[in-house]
Automatic annotation (TrEMBL), chain A:
Protein source organism: Actibacterium naphthalenivorans
Record-level Gene Ontology MF annotations: ATP binding; ATP hydrolysis activity
Keyword Transit peptide: no
Name used for this protein in its record: Peptide/nickel transport system ATP-binding protein
Protein keywords: ATP-binding, Cell membrane, Membrane, Nucleotide-binding, Transport
GO biological process: peptide transport; transmembrane transport
UniProtKB/TrEMBL annotation, chain B:
Keywords: Cell membrane, Membrane, Transmembrane, Transmembrane helix, Transport
Species of origin: Actibacterium naphthalenivorans
Domain of life, source organism: Bacteria
CDD domains according to UniProt: TM_PBP2 (cd06261)
Name of the protein: Peptide/nickel transport system permease protein
Alphabetized InterPro entries for the sequence: BPD_transp_1_N (IPR045621), MetI-like (IPR000515), MetI-like_sf (IPR035906)
Cellular component aspect of the GO annotation: plasma membrane
Ubl conjugation keyword on record: no
From TrEMBL, chain C:
Location(s) in or outside the cell: Cell membrane
Protein name: Peptide/nickel transport system permease protein
SUPFAM superfamilies xref list: MetI-like
Family, per entry: Belongs to the binding-protein-dependent transport system permease family.
Entry-linked InterPro entries: BP-dependent_transpt_permease, MetI-like, MetI-like_sf, OppC_N
Highest taxon of the lineage: Bacteria
Membrane-spanning ranges: 30-52, 102-130, 142-162, 168-185, 231-258, 278-300
Organism: Actibacterium naphthalenivorans
Predominant location category: membrane
ABC transmembrane type-1 domain sequence ranges: 100-300
Transmembrane listed as a keyword: yes
BP terms from Gene Ontology: transmembrane transport
GO cellular component entries: plasma membrane
């Protein structure tokens, strides 16, 4: 049985004169201890998916319909009180920018202790002991002293480690990490990812890693969702998607990776931009940028269908495959 | 911390120096001390002799030096009208004004924080809309009009509260006279301090509300929700603490504004404070008293600004006191 | 969080900006009513000489026998004095029309002075930067830490004592505009400076520099248009504040003389009679003042919501 099961999740934003759909029927399952990546450009709805799981979408956004089943509870339709027992306790979240995630006027100790005390009846002293132990787990030097410090006294990498420690405080079953390294120095990024991977593996914690970096996904995760304009357009085992992407968009993403380019050659970019959520074209949202577009793509939204080891939402995937096969044969 | 204090004291000294210069040039130009001393009937020679004796023919700098030296000793001249040392006259009126400000401050703090927080947390509730509606009306009514309205309603029509004066005051610590120890004193201070608060209260509610709403949108508040904390802790610890930082700074500036508004409230309620006396002094061209008022008010400004800065530095951990005030 | 909209080109944004204002205005009854009331007040003060049955500045027209007559609808009121008369027998309706005119003129002119000073200083500080910038901003801090009203009261009290009240009264309007105008420039300066600093980083200013346009031209053609919406929002609130400041000063006898009353001096002149039952001399000008300031504030609030400019806080 899966740990988390998201079904037909729709998230909308009420703007001044219209309502735009940010997530358009997202469904996926996540098993215990499984690590999954969500990939896409900014604005594709990856972060919103992460926040929607914890029902943390704030005004003017709202969950319009769908279900987020976690341990027999539907997080999309439950009381705030019940949600509080899940948030930070059984599902923890790591935010994008450690510089703004910690409260600047509270000490690290206060911010860790309050998290523990929100879910367990612990004395401050006991809570601090747990906090120190967790800080040690994320390789923070002199953890006892850190408790007295304020966020601004620590570097970005250090703060992100502390945020990871806070996420681990209550031994959650699932961690949602929303681009945990984009705001950090390139040199620290790999360290943080490695730490996250190590902690998830050793504690058997499930992970949802939200990122735009396919390279990171291939190192960290077992399964991948590719999102575009609020929809999942391809999902499957990470290895399969990286080695043999089916959707033209995913193919474009992989071709755009620097590793795929010979030195001196220009990076291959996908032409155009992702449409604004208020101006998504009819039919397949990717059709204006796609080289395989046919009439049907402009009218009908493709469903996710199984193609070999992965699921793809593309009308032309069969023909595309035939084309590439014949190309290969002729080559 | 020490370096910060030195810096702050130095700044205060500069401000006080500027105020004393202004005060002195007022004294120099406003009114003729000779006329006050001897009247019009004295011959020109005697006048000139008196001028020399009084040092009125000395250079500006020498005269200022004399003025400053005396001022340091607390000697700001003698009030023409009261025939008493000007500083003493002012200091006798000081408690009345400060108690008015104190009363207003209590009303403002007591109401603005809960109302500001509530309207930020529940911006769409009917109560919030009512508060916001009243606050914009409150901002639009000048303080003297509120005061007149209050007198009209509570003193003239309902006859339940007195309309002027301080009523029974009790003297404590030697010279300080207080309204807060008698029932009559409480009754007298209620309307004036409510009127004084009426102009600041809506400003503070709106300020706290907008700062709080911004804080509630911040990533660290989102993170606090994601940690599963109780709403009360998020609102009153995570958000409010950060909200109050800018409020403290603005509040410091507003204390100065409040001193100005005491002149208006004191005039309407004939409150025997410094502001009321200042206007009388202006009408009587009582120069030493005007100068004394300026210096005392300047001093209050400097002291409150310093205190507010210090409190800000103590509350906000990201401010190193040593670096502040740069 | 993901971006919900892309950034369309400049022209399109401006078009949307305009239609957005119009759209929001049509949907906001408070804004519509406020603007209507404001226009009504502004127009009636503009045509005050035509609307007023008496000339409130002409003492020969007052008759002491007509003094303290209540409004027409009260017992003892007379039809020729709609809102009654004041203690000198002056028609209150005429006095209010002219008084509102004085209040509005002072409010708008004072804010014009503020804006001119503040915008110039802000542009210079932001554009030149460095030491000039920090000096000017420090000056703004000091200026802000002293209350405008306090400075104005002291300044006016002293100039009244210095010049004598006759000379003072003659130039009262001018002095009020200058005092209220000079004291409040920092708000503009800070906002404009912030905009300049933000705009300076954008490419088109660089491009303009590369094209060797002079600093003045860059500021006027490129930076100023981008500061328009915050300036607009500040100005609305500032006009309301200036009117209140003027009224407060006049109430203290430091503003417009009773012979050329503003709303503040009218209220002040009636205050002495409120205990004897002549409530209208204070109350009616008071209501006009509050309504005038209120509609301006409401328009300001609405503008702030619609334009949502980045205002300098501090």
């Amino acid at each position: 049985m899966s740990l988390l099961s998201v079904r037909d999740l729709v998230v909308k934003f009420a703007m001044r004169d219209q309502t735009v759909t940010a997530l358009n029927g997202i469904s996926f399952d996540l098993n215990r201890g499984e690590r999954m990546g969500i990939v896409g450009e900014s604005g594709a709805g990856k972060s919103i998916t992460g926040f929607a799981i914890l029902n943390l979408i704030s005004r003017p956004g709202f969950i319009d319909s769908g279900h987020v089943m976690f341990d027999g509870m539907d997080l999309a339709h439950t009381s705030d009180k019940a949600l509080r027992t899940i948030r930070g306790n059984r599902i923890a979240m790591i935010f994008q920018d450690p510089m703004v995630t910690l409260n600047p006027v509270l000490t690290i100790g206060q911010q860790m202790v309050e998290t523990l005390q929100a879910h367990r009846s612990l004395t401050r002293r006991d809570a601090e002991k747990i906090a120190v132990a967790k800080l040690r787990e994320v390789y923070i030097p002199a953890p006892e002293e850190r408790l007295q410090q304020y966020p601004h006294e620590l570097s970005g990498g250090m703060r992100q480690r502390i945020i990871i420690a806070i996420a681990l405080l209550l031994d959650p079953q699932l961690i949602i990490a929303d681009e945990p390294t984009t705001a950090l120095d390139v040199t620290i990024q790999a360290d943080i990812m490695e730490l996250l991977l190590e902690l998830c593996q050793s504690n058997n914690v499930s992970l949802i890693l939200i990122t735009h970096d396919l390279g990171v996904v291939s190192q960290m995760t077992e399964r991948t969702l590719v999102m575009y304009a609020g929809r999942i357009i391809e999902s499957g085992r990470t290895r399969a998607i990286i080695n043999d992407p089916q959707h033209p968009y995913t193919q474009g993403l992989i071709k755009a990776l620097p590793q795929q380019t010979l030195p001196g050659e220009r990076l291959k970019q996908i032409p155009g931009n992702m449409p604004a959520l208020s101006a998504i074209p009819p039919g397949c949202p990717f059709n204006p940028r796609c080289e395989y577009t046919v009439d049907r793509c402009r009218t009908t939204i493709p469903e996710l269908v199984r193609v070999g080891p992965v699921e793809v939402a593309c009308h032309e995937v069969q023909r595309m495959n035939r084309d590439t096969e014949t190309e290969e044969q002729t080559a | 911390m020490f370096a910060y204090l030195v810096k702050r004291v130095f700044q205060a000294a500069v401000v006080m120096f500027v105020i004393s210069l202004i005060s002195f040039s007022i004294q120099d130009n406003l009114g003729d001390p000779l006329r006050e001393l001897v009247g019009q009937s004295v011959s020109e020679e005697v006048r000139e002799q008196l001028r020399d004796e009084l040092g009125l023919n000395d250079s500006f700098l020498v005269q200022y030096g004399r003025f400053a030296k005396k001022a340091m000793r607390g000697d700001l001249g003698t009030s023409y009208f009261f025939k008493e040392p000007a500083l003493e006259v002012i200091l006798k009126k000081l408690p009345a004004t400060l108690e008015l400000v104190l009363g207003a401050t209590f009303i403002i703090i007591g109401l603005s924080v809960p109302l500001g927080v509530f309207t930020a947390i529940r911006p769409h509730s009917i109560f919030s809309r009512v508060i916001m509606g009243f606050s914009i009306i409150g901002i639009s009514v000048p303080v003297f009009l509120t005061a007149i309205l209050m007198i009209f309603v509570f003193s003239v029509e309902m006859r339940i509260l007195p309309s002027y004066g301080r009523g029974d005051v009790v003297h404590v610590f030697g010279y300080w006279s207080t309204n807060f120890l008698t029932w009559d004193g409480w009754k007298h201070i209620l309307l004036p301090s409510a009127a004084l608060a009426s102009i600041m209260l809506p400003l503070f509610i709106r300020l706290i509300r907008s700062e709080m709403m911004e804080t509630l949108q911040s990533e660290y508040v989102r993170f606090a929700w994601a940690k599963g904390l109780r709403p009360r802790r998020i609102w009153f610890v995570h958000a409010l603490k950060n909200t109050l930082l800018p409020v403290i700074t603005v509040g410091g500036v507003q204390i100065g504004t409040m001193v100005a508004y005491t002149i208006l409230t004191e005039t309407v309620f004939q409150w025997p404070g410094m502001g009321f006396m200042f206007l009388e002094a202006v009408n009587r061209v009582d120069t030493p008293l005007i100068v004394a008022y300026l210096i005392v008010v300047g001093f209050i400004f400097v002291v409150t600004n310093t205190i507010v800065d210090l409190i800000y530095g103590l509350v906000n951990p990201t401010v190193k006191l040593a670096r502040m005030g740069a | 969080m993901s971006n919900l909209s892309t950034n369309p080109e400049k022209t399109r944004m401006q078009k949307m900006w305009h239609s957005n204002i119009a759209y929001s205005f049509r949907r906001n009854p408070v804004a519509i009513v406020s603007l209507a009331v404001f226009l009504l007040i502004a127009l009636s003060t503009l045509f005050a000489p035509l609307l007023a049955p008496f000339d409130p500045y002409d003492m020969t027209q007052f008759n002491i026998l007509d003094s303290e007559l209540p409004p027409a609808w009260e017992q003892g009121g007379e039809a020729r004095f709609v809102f009654g008369t004041d203690a000198q027998g002056r028609d209150l309706w005429s006095a209010i029309l002219y008084g509102t005119r004085v209040s509005l003129i002072i409010g708008i002119c004072a804010v014009a002075v503020q804006a001119l000073l503040g915008i110039t200083i802000g542009l210079v500080a932001g554009y030149v930067g460095g030491r000039v910038d920090s000096l000017l901003m420090r000056l703004a801090d000091v200026q802000l830490s002293f209350s405008t009203l306090m400075v104005a009261i002291i300044f006016l009290a002293i100039s009244q004592a210095l010049f004598g009240s006759e000379t003072f009264n003659e130039y009262a309007l001018f002095i009020l505009v200058i005092v209220i105008g000079v004291a409040e420039w920092p708000q503009y300066a800070r906002t404009v400076r912030a905009t300049v600093l933000a705009e300076k980083r954008k490419e088109y200013v660089d491009a303009a520099r590369v094209l060797a346009f002079g600093p003045l031209r860059i500021m006027i053609k490129h930076i100023l248009p981008n500061s328009i919406s915050p300036i607009f929002v500040i100005s609305t609130v500032q006009v309301a504040n200036a009117i209140i400041s003027e009224a407060s000063l006049s109430f203290l006898g430091l503003g417009m003389p009773v012979s050329q009353p503003s709303l503040g001096s009218l209220i002040s002149s009636g205050f002495d009679y409120i205990f004897s039952g002549s409530w209208w001399i204070t109350t009616i000008p008071g209501i006009v003042l509050v309504v005038l300031v209120l509609v301006i504030n409401l328009l300001g609030d609405w503008l702030r919501d619609v334009l949502n400019p980045k205002l300098y806080k501090g």
